[in-house]
């Protein structure tokens, strides 16, 4: 049996879609969640391939970078799309998600740097709000044409997991309102009600990110 160990911090963040692929596939893995500020991290940081987490160890072979890890497990367990074209669409949606997240990073940095509230509001209005509008429009357009209710093809892919988990984060941080987004809400609920995910979602640690 292959030994999988996924190491990350005590949040959903960049590791959550990969955790969900393991649950969907019914494949056992060690889900290591280091508490923020854990002293172990100082030492581990010098040892992991790119000095950051998440890292997936596969029988001791370490893979860094969350997107590479997620694609690797999704391909291996059948959640990457059923054809090269579906795989390309799953990748495209995740790339679009990354563009959107980049717009939010500026708000997070401004908050961290204790920038005045007006400055944070300005960044939101000029960068994050239009980016969210465009991202939601793209996703709604895809879902309007989807027969399955999933973003790609007729079954769940890692693109659905990435988008759904980000909707959770947006909702927890006041940037996603279910009553305003029926299609995205249906996607989120569809993913969370997948029989192999339902129990995990209900029992996982509740975190802001
Ligand atoms: N592009 C990388 C980013 C990884 C990253 O930023 N990891 C953060 C946690 S979300 C980290 O390891 N922070 C601790 C540090 O840099 O010391 C990925 O997607 O895996």
UniProtKB/TrEMBL annotation:
Q: Which UniProt keywords apply?
A: Transferase
Q: From which source organism is this entry?
A: Caenorhabditis angaria
User: Per the UniProt record, which EC number(s) apply here?
Assistant: 2.5.1.18
Q: Under which main EC class is this enzyme filed?
A: transferase
Signal peptide boundaries: none
This one is known as: glutathione transferase
Q: Name one GO cellular component term.
A: cytoplasm
Give every GST N-terminal domain span. Answer: 2-81
Name the source's superkingdom: Eukaryota
**Molecular functions per Gene Ontology:** glutathione transferase activity
Q: Which residues form the GST C-terminal domain?
A: 83-209
């Amino acid at each position: 049996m292959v030994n999988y160990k996924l190491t990350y911090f005590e949040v959903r963040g960049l590791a959550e879609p990969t955790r969900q692929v393991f649950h969907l596939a019914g494949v056992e893995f060690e889900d290591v969640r280091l508490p923020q500020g854990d002293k172990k991290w100082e030492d581990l940081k010098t040892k992991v391939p790119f000095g950051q987490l998440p890292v997936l160890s596969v029988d001791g072979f370490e893979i860094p970078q969350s997107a590479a890890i997620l694609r690797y497990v999704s391909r291996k367990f059948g959640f990457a799309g059923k054809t090269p074209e579906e795989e390309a669409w799953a990748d495209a949606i995740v790339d679009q998600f990354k563009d959107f997240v980049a717009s939010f990073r500026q708000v997070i940095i401004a908050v961290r740097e204790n920038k005045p509230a007006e400055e944070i509001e300005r960044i939101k209005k000029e960068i994050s709000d239009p980016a969210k509008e465009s991202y939601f429009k793209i996703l709604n357009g895809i879902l309007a044409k989807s027969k399955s209710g999933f973003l790609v093809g007729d079954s769940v892919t890692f693109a659905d997991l990435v988008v759904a988990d980000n909707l959770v984060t947006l909702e927890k941080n006041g940037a996603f309102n279910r009553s305003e987004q029926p299609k995205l809400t249906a996607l989120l609920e569809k993913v969370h009600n997948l029989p192999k995910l339902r129990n995990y979602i209900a029992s996982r640690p509740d975190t802001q990110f």
